[in-house]
Hints:
Blueprint: E1 4-11, H1 25-34, E2 37-41, H2 50-59, E3 67-70, H3 81-90, E4 93-95, E5 99-103, E6 106-110, H4 129-150, E7 157-161, H5 188-191, E8 196-201, E9 210-212, E10 218-221, H6 224-230, E11 238-244
Parallel strand pairs: 1-2, 2-3, 3-4, 6-7, 7-8, 8-10
Antiparallel strand pairs: 1-11, 5-6, 9-10
Amino acid sequence: xxxxxxxxxxxxxxxxxxxxxxxxxxxxxxxxxxxxxxxxxxxxxxxxxxxxxxxxxxxxxxxxxxxxxxxxxxxxxxxxxxxxxxxxxxxxxxxxxxxxxxxxxxxxxxxxxxxxxxxxxxxxxxxxxxxxxxxxxxxxxxxxxxxxxxxxxxxxxxxxxxxxxxxxxxxxxxxxxxxxxxxxxxxxxxxxxxxxxxxxxxxxxxxxxxxxxxxxxxxxxxxxxxxxxxxxxxxxxxxxxxxxxxxxxxxxxxxxxxxxxxxxxxxxxxxxxxxxxxxxxxxxxxxx
Length: 288
């Protein structure tokens, strides 16, 4: 198979509401012009309501490229995440939760992820039962990510699609008190065992654009609020060029080809404003 380049668009934290009709279609139309596939890193909806998912499903009709996504914490809020997943899946989106798919030769392993903190400050399974359950959730998400990677061909370029961050670097800028709720370094462990090209996540609305795992795999925060503030002259999504083909077979994550961001054409800022704004939560990045 000859080497080629796939343009991967990415964004997160759409927070689609019941009143978002028409708000996302211009954005999705622009993505369809700029990329070969789209990856959405969670928080598709604001309250996790089926009605919000139905609005998003209609907005997605503007897309003419394959789409894969994971859920985020907002999508879990109302206890109807399975309904949200089915509605968005029926709209043509490949929903991942410990699953994997291959789009245009790019292998995507996706999980929501969970919190728990990073490095030496990560929460450990000691003490009360509820603390152990919290840690267990993060461990289970990491195990699901590992299982998803195992399902993919080693010859495919691999992308990890998460909502929560696997590294502290991309949540810096958020209040330190909420770091444990923004991600977990346990998610980094399976990434280091596979030749991953890049990692995408959202959730940290006021974090940093880019970091890296200990093995050198680039990690990108594609939260829409962060992209809107950082790139005020263009729509809030990023495009990465990922090489696919024979040369993508790599021995280690550090040797994987990094994703690069092409120079996009200047474009007016696309403002997506939901009526009344999203509900604010202390455990979400940027307080949203």
